[in-house]
Every structure is written in C-alpha cells, then in structure tokens.
C-alpha cells in the first residue's frame, strides 16, 4: 500500500539543494594551473548549485591529504572530493589517508563506481580503489584522477545523492 512518495524521494525533497564542498587533487605532478580533473569536479559541483569552499592540489602524501581534509572541514565543507591516488602504484595513498578517518565506510559507492566503470573501460575497472565514507558529519570521496572517471562518478552517483546524504548526516 503506497501513501505518496517513497521514503527516498521524500528524503531527497527535503535535502539541501546546495552543499558546501571541497576539491582536493592528490598529485606529485599537477599544479593548480594543470589540474584538469579538479577543475572539472569544481565546475560540475558549481553547475549543480553546490558551493566549493576549498580547492587545493597536494602531493600524494598521507599527511598532506589529511591536512587538506582538516582544512576543508574547517572551511565548512560537508563533502570533500579527493581525486587521484586511488590506483595500485606505490605512490597512490589517498585511500590509506582517508579510510582510517571514516566513521562509517560507504562501500556501495566504490562497488557501483567500479560496476559503471566496467561498462566504460572493461576489466581495468577493478584496478580502482575508489571509496567513500563519513567523517565528522561530512562525506569523503576518494576518486580516480581521470577526468572521465570523475565525470562518471559525479553524474551517476555523487550529484544525484549528495544533498540527500548530507541531510542524513545532519539527522
């Protein structure tokens, strides 16, 4: 028996339309001027009505990534989108920087991201360690450094649920 909208639709309807977000690019080679992936994330967030309160490029270093997350939260970010550092190379440490911070891991994000990626790139999709979790009332995302991959994650997973998730974290 249905009475109006499903609960997830009601939650979305009462979710904030704008979320304060931060973009952190992990790279030993990119600069703020050459950070195409970070710029694409920022543009997508802003086009969807979200406010980007911090955008930084840091080295692929656990301490620098965590310091950028702390800076983002201090600036009021409720979502921190970290890109780069999710592969299998020894220097890829974004997951190692973020996972210990998680109050709750959101494994469905990485699982669905790899499934959608598989449709685009085939078996190489399983090489991604993309993940997400909550931390101090915010959501942290570890995304690949590829502009195409982050576009997929934003369009299909993050942007449709970002306000809903932040609303849930505020309850």
Highlighted features:
alpha/beta, six-stranded mixed sheet, 171 residues, globular, 19% strand, Molybdenum Cofactor Biosythetic Enzyme, Chain A
Structural notes for this entry:
- The protein has six helices and six strands.
- It has 171 residues and is α/β, with parallel strands linked by helices.
- The chain has one domain: MoaB/Mog-like domain (Molybdenum Cofactor Biosythetic Enzyme, Chain A, 3-Layer(aba) Sandwich).
- The protein has a six-stranded mixed β-sheet, with helices on both faces.
- The chain starts with 6 loop residues before the first helix and ends with a helix.
Give the gist of this structure.
The protein is built from 6 helices and 6 strands.
How is the secondary structure organized here?
Blueprint: H1 7-13, E1 20-26, H2 36-47, E2 51-58, H3 62-74, E3 79-83, H4 94-98, E4 104-105, H5 107-121, E5 131-135, E6 138-143, H6 147-169
Parallel strand pairs: 1-2, 1-3, 3-6
Antiparallel strand pairs: 4-5, 5-6
Helix pairs in contact: 1-6, 2-6, 5-6
Number of helices: 6
CATH architecture annotation name: 3-Layer(aba) Sandwich
Query: What is the strand tally?
Result: 6
> Based on CA inertia axes, which overall geometry fits?
globular
CATH homology superfamily name: MoaB/Mog-like domain
C-alpha end-to-end distance = 27 Å
What is the C-level CATH assignment?
Alpha Beta
Going by helix content, strand content and strand pairing, the class is alpha/beta
Domain tally: 1
Which sequence of strands runs across the widest sheet? 2-1-3-6-5-4
Rg of Cα set: 16 Å
Order of helices and strands: HEHEHEHEHEEH
Average pLDDT confidence is 93
Helix content: 40-55%
Q: Write the CATH fold name.
A: Molybdenum Cofactor Biosythetic Enzyme, Chain A
Question: Beta-strand level of the residues, as a percent range?
Answer: 15-25%
Provide the low-confidence segments as ranges: none
Largest sheet: 6 strands, mixed
């Amino acid at each position: 028996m249905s009475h109006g909208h499903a609960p997830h639709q009601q939650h979305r309807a009462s979710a904030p339309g704008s979320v304060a977000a931060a973009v952190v690019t992990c790279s030993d080679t990119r600069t703020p001027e050459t950070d195409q992936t970070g710029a694409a994330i920022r543009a997508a967030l802003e086009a969807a009505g979200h406010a980007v309160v911090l955008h930084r490029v840091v080295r692929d270093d656990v301490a620098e990534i965590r310091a950028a997350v702390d800076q983002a939260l201090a600036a009021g970010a409720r979502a921190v989108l970290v890109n780069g550092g999710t592969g299998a190379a020894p220097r890829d440490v974004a997951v190692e920087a973020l996972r210990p911070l998680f109050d709750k891991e959101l494994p469905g994000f990485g699982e669905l991201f790899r499934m959608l990626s598989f449709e685009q790139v085939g078996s190489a999709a399983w090489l991604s360690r993309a993940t997400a979790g909550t931390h101090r009332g915010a959501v942290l995302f570890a995304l690949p450094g590829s502009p195409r991959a982050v576009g997929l994650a934003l369009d299909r997973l993050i942007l449709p649920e970002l306000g809903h998730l932040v609303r849930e974290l505020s309850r």
